[in-house]
Each structure stands twice: as C-alpha cells, then as structure tokens.
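Next comes one such specimen:
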Amino acid sequence: MSSNRMRGLETVLALALVLPPFLVGPQARAQAPARAPAQASVPSSTQASGFTLADALAALSGAPAWQKADLDVQSAADALAAARASAGLQVSAGGSYDRTDTLAGSGGRNSVSAKVSVSASATVLPWAPVDASIANAETALAVATLGRDAARVGLRLTVEQQYFAARQAAGARDVAQAAADQAQARLAAATAQHAQGQLSDVGLAQARAAVAGAQATLTQAASAVDFDRRTLFDSLGVPPTEAPLTTAPPQPAAPAGSLDALVQVGIPKRTDVRVAELKVRQAQASLSAVAAQRWIPGASLAVGLSSNDGSGAQAGLGMNVALDFQKGIVSGNASYPIAPAGNGSVSTQLSIGASVSIPLDAPSSDAAVRSARTALASAKAALSATERAAALDIRQRYAAWQAAQASLAADSASLAAARQALGTAQARLAAGLAITLDVGDANVAYARAQRTVESDQNALYLALLQLRNALGELAATPGGVP
C-alpha cells in the first residue's frame, strides 16, 4: 500500500476515534445532566443549576466544626454565669428538732425544742477572691469568642480550598479522558500500520503501553474527583451531591499599601495577637489582685441578737450578722423556735465581736506574688513572640501571593502558545500537511495548558484569602463571597 493510502487510512481511523470526544469537549460533558444522588444535600434546583461556592458557604453554619466553635463559646459563657452567680446572694433555709427524755427515777422531766432558720451570704468587697474568678472567666469567654471567630475563618478557608480542589480535579479528569482518547486513536493507527508492515512489534507494544498508562491516569483522576468531592461535603456535614461545581475563582480586591504598612496595620487585628494581649491583661490583673491580697488584714466583725429562757434555750427570734473583711463576704443567720422549752423568764442579749490579724510575714503570699510576676513576664514575652511570628506570617503570605501572580502570568503565556500551536495544527491539517492525530496532540496540550491556568487562578485566589486572613481582615460570611 502506498504512503498516501496509508496516510488516508490513518486519517479515517483517527477521525472516527478522536473527533467525537473533541466535538463534545470537556465543557459540554461537564454540562451533561448529573444522575440523581441517593441522598440529596441541597435543593433540587441547586442540583440542576450546580453547586456554587455561595451554596457551600451558606452551609457552613451546619458544619460540625462550626457548631463545635459555638459550643465552646457557650461553655465559656456558662462558666462566667456560674462565677458571677457564686458572688451573688446565696440563701438557704433549715430547721432542727431536739427531744430529751429523762429516764424513770430521775425526776421524769422531758424537753422538746424545734426551730427554723434562714441563712444568707453575699460578696460585697471588691478584693474578694471570687472577683478574680469572675475576671478569669471573662477573659476565658473573650478568648473563646476569638477562637470561635478564628475557627470559622479557618473552616471557610478549608471549604474554599476543598471546593476549588474538587473543581480542579474534575477538569483534570476531563484532560485525562482526552489523553486516553488520543492514546486509543494512536493505538488504532499503530495497529493499522503494523498490519501493513509499516510498524514494528516494538512500536505497537509502545502504543499499547501508552493506552494502558493513559487509562491508569484516567482511573486515578476519576478517583480523585470522587475523593475530593466527598472531602468537601464531609467538611460541610452534608451528604455528597453530584451537582457540578460551577463557581470559578473570584478575584477580590488586593490589599492596598506597601508590605511594611500592611504588617504594621495587620498585626493588631490578628486573632492570635489579640488573644496574647488578653492574656497579658489577665496576668496584670492577677498580679494586682495577689499583691493587694498580700496586705489585706484578716479582720472580721460580728453582731448577734438572741432571746433565751432561764435554761439557756432559745425562746425567741435570734439573728447574727458577720463580715469577713479579707474574703469580702457578709453573712447572716436568723432563727426562730417553733417549740420553745419554756423554762423561766426570757432575756434578750446583744453581742458584738471583732478581730483583726495583720500579715507581717506570709511566705506563701509572697511566693504567690512572685509567681504572678513571673506569669506576667511570661505573658509579655509570649505577646512579643506572637507579634514577631505574625509579622513573618504576613510577609510569607504576601510573597506567596506575588509568586501566584507570577505563575499565572507565565502559564497564561504558555496557554497562548498552546492556543497558537493548536491553530497551526488545524491549519496544517486543512492544507493536507498534518494528520488528525497531530491536531489531537495539540488539542490535549491546549487542554492541559487551560487546566494549568485554572489551577493558577485557584492558587492566586486562595493566596489572596490567606493574605487577608494573615492581616486579620478575613471573616466567615455564610451565604456569599465577600
């Protein structure tokens, strides 16, 4: 068979195998109706139109990580409420009953007494230890709130990364499918050449190996699509849907200003820096409280009023009020007999008592003051280290954003070259200077260049999000993209 007839056979076989997938194209295949999932996680209208990034962000509030962060804040709020309640008015009621029976032969006298009582206490002085507990609980709530905000932002970043990773995996699968189709077309041409004695056994084996390799790559790409989609929907806490991921990476505004200016402005807004500042203030307040407590005297004052009969048993209303100066607690008690003994006349007594103790040498209190000073120094050192790490993180994120911009520019130039090469191959085919397989190769190269640019666009968008997060400017916004 002549060379021209061989070239014609190659062209017919390649057209039959290659043109259908390229006429359909990855984009058209992506628009094909998806089969209904076993368990829908989004409304049917969403599945028909695709699962957008806004849909993913709207589902964040139901994600397990989001709910855990809310529960952490609620737990801290409950602890603060409990601490404040312990400083408020505490009231309790009680009663007692006593009966004494004299044995026979000893006079035969019996006595019965019963009384009810009410007790109350409250913290009234500002240096009470419970106030330190309240201050610590307030700081813990503030830290938990900042932690919740950071967790929400982190979840948003994770979901957006997973969304675009799953979308990119679908594109990679389309490219792998095109490459497998092209390898199959080359194998058909190689088989025809081998049958006509135009190709050696080694050449045919190589074509078969290329098909096997392309199929393996396609299988891996399909598995990656399934895994990446499941990872995304698992983070959202909803069953997977097969609706296409339709949102391309948006391009939010880049931060304005020089890098040094961004560092100076961004550091105070970061969550980790704000948490470190809260811990410094907490350590300062703790030191002040411990230092003041060191010299507060152990003083107390008590006033009592009682009514007793001749035997000393309570015969009327009895009251007692006491103030613990060091603990800052005032307490009171009132009791009344409901079955008085009734022995003799009733007398009323008023009692007043006071005591004071000044701590001249208190090694344990002095050690507590030293410990509080050390804790404050440690908190300040941690704040300084956090600020330095924050500055470095901002600079690294800024450099990553600039690198992503450079990669996109370079790969966009490569995409333009691949587009030109495809046009050249098509023109050569029309002029009879190339075969369809050459166009197929150029088409696959062009599709790969497209996916590379899309990957760069994803990386640029995510790098900008990471930079904004490093600057303390990124917020979790369910329901849409800011």
